[in-house]
Amino acid sequence: MHAGTPARAGLDAAELQLLVREVRRLPEGEHPWCAGAVVLAGRGPVVAVEQAVGWAVRYAAYDETGDRGVELPSEQRVPMRTGTLFDLASLTKLCTAVVAVQQVERGALDLERPVAAYVPEFAAAGKEGVTVRQLLTHTSGLRPELPFYTRRGRTAQLAMLWEDTPVTAPGSGHLYSDLNPVALQVVLERTGGAPLDELVREGITGPLGMTETEFAPPGAAGVAAATEDQRRPWAKLDRGMLRGEVHDENAHALGGVAGHAGLFSTAWDLAVLCRALLNDGAYGGTRILAPASVDALLAPPGLGFAVDQPWFMGELAGRGAAGHTGFTGTSLVLDRATDTFLVLLANTVHPRRRPADNTPRAAAATHLARAARSAAAGRRDG
Predict the structure, then answer these.
(1) What is the 3-state secondary structure (H, E, C) of 209-266?
(2) 217-255 residue pLDDT tens
(3) Distance of CA 248 to CAs 57, 214, 237, Å?
(4) pLDDT per residue over 286-328, tens digit each?
């Protein structure tokens, strides 16, 4: 993968200019969508767009009386850079899913077996029939979350999950839940014989050379994009302005390594993961998945990956585009139909979380989809 021109990537330059122009506007206004962002987009091995806008650190705190951020003096703000590290939030779930499919390849895991076959504690309270596949497809019936942060120690925290009863019948429908990848993490650690961070490092980030992607990265407090002035009542814990520490309260309580959140990364590293998946599991001479395993991850309804979701994929959705979003403002989309990829990382919760607005994500993906279509139409006309 290398930087190149839109023409080299087979993408329409005008549409990509519109994409960049709209991203540049995101940090503007009284209540901007984000303090700053990094966008990276490309096709095939070519990265045609890589831009940083706004600020990695803009605010000292959140002023609840005025409902605005307390601006840092200009000399204390930290500009966003293309290599800025981001708290990925729920994009972590994608790596958890990849590790799961790797274990299926090795015969250590069967997606159709009950979770309780690997973690007997999970069988309590009506969960004995929940399968590993149902965890990956959010059809287990588990509630969206539990307050692990109210207990000390992983054993006591996970006991909340073991004791909890599904809120809908397992297999009866889709209910997005952070508890699914948390339970899956325990399964993978038992079948893989190592903590999740080691499994991700040995199976994904190490082989692919994703050197900026890890849980609880050392020195992140000085290089990461800031997230939230995390205080009650809008947050679940009182931790103050966060930078380089995982934002998700449950992931924080679980020690920073969790199946649903905790990874930090850069736009370029995530693009490498996209390219590996678009290349049927291989990148730079290294294979992390068999082609059939990539199909299992990305084919509808997806395993860990969301598939064809216009609300954040825009016009890329429709022919098998896959990806995910993260609460802190992160997202990625890869589209096998056009061989394109889009990474949009932003600190939308800096200085405070607000209701999600996915319009900018969908708009950026739409411009990429049109860039691929326009270029293809131009080649046909020529």
Answers:
(1) CCCCCEECCCCHHHCECEEEEECCCCCCCCCEEEECCCCCHHHHHCCCCCCCCCEEEC
(2) 998 999 999 999 999 999 999 999 999 999 999 999 999
(3) 18, 16, 10
(4) 999 999 999 999 999 999 999 999 999 999 999 999 999 999 9
Pairing of strands 2-3, 46-57: parallel
**pLDDT above 70 for 205:** yes
pLDDT in the model for residue 40? 98
End-to-end CA distance of the chain: 28
Using one digit for the tens of pLDDT, what is the confidence trace for 322-345? 999 999 999 999 999 999 999 999
> Which residue ranges form the domains of the chain, and what is each CATH number?
2-89+222-283+298-381 (3.40.710.10)
Q: What's the full length of the chain, in residues?
A: 382
Rounded Cα distance, 181 and 326, in Å: 14
Residue 381 above 60 pLDDT?
Answer: no
